[in-house]
Amino acid sequence: MYLDHISEADIVELNIPTGVPLVYELDADLTPIRSYYLGDPEQVKAAMEAVAKQGKKHT
């Protein structure tokens, strides 16, 4: 939340995959310049979709 300047209202909309490292690249002043999940992009996407489904109502 702090590093990405995400509001408290917006943070609940994120689908952060469980157990997938999030890498931040920092500049000399320790300001984030890039962030990405470490791993196969398709597996990360599937993990994010699985997290999104956890919050949906099942009918």
Structure description:
There is one protein chain. By secondary structure, the protein is of the alpha+beta class. It has one domain. Helix content is 31%, strand content 19%. It has two helices and two strands, in the order αββα. It has helices spanning 8-11, 41-54, and strands at 22-26, 32-37. The protein has a two-stranded antiparallel sheet. It is flat. The protein starts with 7 loop residues before the first helix and ends in a 5-residue tail after the last helix. The model has no long low-confidence stretch (mean pLDDT 90).
Task: Give the tags.
two-stranded antiparallel ribbon; alpha+beta; 59 residues
Structural class: alpha+beta
Main β sheet profile:
2 strands, antiparallel
The end-to-end span amounts to 32 Å
**Spatial arrangement of strands, main beta sheet:** 1-2
Number of helices: 2
* Strand residue content: 15-25%
Q: Average the pLDDT over all residues and give the rounded result.
A: 90
